[in-house]
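Protocol step 4 of 5: obtain the predicted structure for the target chain.
Materials: sequence only (see below). No template structures provided, no constraints applied. The aim of this step is simply to have a reference model before the mutagenesis design in step 5. Sequence pasted as it appears in the construct record:
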Amino acid sequence: MSMNRRKFLKSSSLYGAAAALGPSVYAGTAKASSEIEVGVMFSLTGGLSIVEKTLADATLLAIEEINAAGGVAGKEIVPIVEDGASDPKTYNEKASKLVLRDRVPTVFGCYTSASRKAVLPVFERRKNLLFYPTYYEGFECSKNVVYTGAVPNQQLSNFIPWIMENLGKKKFFIVGSNYIYPREMAKVSKILIEQGGGEWVADEYLELGHSEWGAMVNRIRESGCDVVLSNVVGDSVIAFYREFINQGLSHDTLPICATVTSEIEIAAMGAEFAAGSYTSFPYFQAIPTEANMSFLDRYRAFVKDDAAVTQHALECSYFQVYLWKQAVEAAGGEATPDTIREGIKGQTFDAPNGRVTIDPENLHAYLTPRIAQWGGDGQGTIIDEYADPIQPLPYVAYGEAGDDLFCTQGGLDTARL
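Step 4 output (structure tokens):
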């Protein structure tokens, strides 16, 4: 039952590869009982496609592997691929198509919080289900989203104290792209910085996709900071790091510590521009396990590129399909948003980053925090790692704790915010 990749990867305007399969008749006239259609919705064009194309590829890899192994409860997964075009409005339109016209029971997709926020009303009004693979800022509690990327307590609660204690840096210049994720991550960072006895000397933003970083880097130089906390996203990362080094700044004395910069952006900018800087993620390509090395080999074979790199959101895009498969099978093969939502609760999978589990209360993933320093080869050396996955706390900035949850199966306790 192996799916030929050419069956759904054809030349088209979507990115010269992925094309939408035909319209679904999921409800109404019967769809083939041997198939389950799902949406795959990422930016295949535009400024964010540098990352999002790879998330689509990782999703399609998992689908191909599952189909080759017999499918889901004996059914073949059929992906309907849509291009969000790096534009929240387009994302909303594509989500509406997938949910209303194609009637898919699940969509795997979105990268930025702006795109997630744009499609969330579609999934909540229609009680459909989005699997979202990106690390994000938290502050969300939806019964219609399964969140498989890191939340701030899995990415910042380890990182900010480590910067101050191990690098001896106390004066933070916070810089980001101008939309919800960088701004909300900055809020969490400020709380952690102040709790640790440090200070933030600036909190600055440029528009998503901005490529002229000269003035901003000069402000960093003149600010008196001793560390830069970067929440810069997309192809702006490349322009920022290049300008940083071109102006004579050094990661040895003034390191950039990032929540977004990954193997993909570093490969695009040139490793020399990031060497010596740091990133906090639960997954890095350099994780030295047999499971991760096997994943890297399979991914490279799938995209036909021996030099292709992997990163956190890409890995989440891959393993969340397997968690979805387990949820469908837990429901006896019934693939509706309601049955999948119930079936996903507590599901565990041995992913390339290690063991992941979906918290049955808030539908977020238990993940293992890690910090890596980037080398001249474009790969990170993992220099700090938790022993075990930790519970996701999307409202940690408001005081949420493992024994005091704000987001539960009963909904969000808004009185706590």
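Step 4 remarks: Residues 5-150+288-366 form a domain with the Rossmann fold fold (CATH 3.40.50.2300). The chain is about 35% helix and 20% strand.
Proceed to step 5.
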